[in-house]
Structure formats: structure tokens, C-alpha cells
Amino acid sequence: MIVYDFDEMFDKRLTKYISDSKGKYTEEEWEDRIPQLYDKFGDTVLSVIGTTPRKYYAAMSDDEIIKCLRAHVKENIPVSSFLCLEIQKRRIIKKLMPLLEGSTDEQIMAMNLIGDEDAAIPLYLEILVRSDDEEVKERASELIKAKADLVADAAISNYRAGRAREYMLDILSRSVRRRDDIFRILIDEFRGEADNIPLKAGLLASYGDERALPYLQDRIEEEGISYVDFRELKFAIEALGGVYTGERDFSEDRYYEIIKAHDTANSLNIFGDASDNGQDVS
Hints:
By secondary structure, this protein is an all-alpha fold. The longest helix has 15 residues.
């Protein structure tokens, strides 16, 4: 099968078009125009194939288009939007599934095309547990979290078996259904060793169960917590509908001044740099 790099063909045409149109459009106008030109390119008859990129893929059978996709990935040739859109339009999920057992690049491509379809979520969890590739694990986790309830039981089993525990905790925290077993796991992690409090408080905030408020309130009152821990605990409390009004002194915390200065700078940036508009904001 001949694999065509339509994106490269477009780039060559675009380079010439930009050169011929020098000074005609602003940078902002080009940002709007280039996607329009690419879309138009999809309906342009190309002599090398005797048809348009869109019609080229539309004429393929389901098996042919999957074979074409595999060839793109294997030969490291960019997969054009025209190919992706044609595959997604057909909703041939079952034919994409075998790519999840393939190379890292095939797995990523398949996950991007399949998305968070229910049927694929259990497979994503299996991939996450057995893969050594961080990009694969992150992409699988991202998709699983959109449908976490579908694999909650399996995620609990993996967590208890010590398989990809941090990923499993993150997945469980995105479950929509309120379950005592999930709540207890997240609380036990939070009440365990006082390491990575921001992460564990964030998991409770993500899960959204108000029963966690007393545990968060107790921890935020503890002496010796850092300013970073305090901020994340306060955020988690507020995310669950609680309020913390206690006064704490973090002036001796080595990160306190750095974070406050960063927050102040970000606040000023909302209004822009005074030098940009000639106003005195002192």
C-alpha cells in the first residue's frame, strides 16, 4: 500500500502561497486562514492520486483504511486529519481495538481515535497496568477517568494488589458513584503517612464526598504543616463546601514568600503591565 503524506503536500503548497501573499495578511489573519486553507485542501483534486484527500480515504473499505492507518504509524508518516475524520465517522471501534495490542505508537493512535468509548475503558485499564511507557499510561488514565465508574471494581483490585497504585487512586477519585469502599481507600491514604498531602487532599476534593471534611479540618489544624500543604488542604475544604477561617503564621516557611510573590505577580498580570498602557499603578 502506498502511503501519502498529505500534510507535507499541504505544507509545500502553503509555503508557496504565503510567499506569494507576502504582506497581504497579518499574523492573526494567517492563524484564521491556514485552517480554512487546509480544509479546502481536503477537497482539492491532487494529480498524484487522481482525486481529493477526503475522497481517497472515503473510497477505502474499513479493512483498507485500518491497514492504511497502521502503515502510517509503522512508517512514521504523519496521519492527516482527513484520515482520522474518516475513521471516526465510520465508528469502526472493533477494528481499531487490535491496535491497542500493538506498538506504543499504535496504542496512542488507537486511544486518540477511540476516545472514551465504554467498550474500550476496561482495555485501557489493562494497558495502564502492564505498560512501561509513561505516555501510554497517562493517555489511558486520562480516558479512563472520564468513565471511572465502569472500572471502579477492577481499579480497587489493582490498588489492593499494589498495581499502579497512584494511577488507581486517581481513577477512583473520579468515580461519580458514592461508594464506602472507595471513600475508605481515599481516607486511609490521606490519614496514612504524612507525605504528599497536597496530592491526597486533591484526591478527596476530586471525589467530592463531604464526609471527608472533618478529616481535612483536623489535618489543616495540625502544627508543623507546610504552607504548600495548608493551601491545598484549604482548597480541598472549600471544594467540598466547607470553610476554614483559622489564622496561621507561615512567615518562617521557606516557600511562603516565594508563593505569595508569585500569586501577587499573577494578580498584577490580570490588569497588564503598567508600562504597556502608561498608567501608574503604584
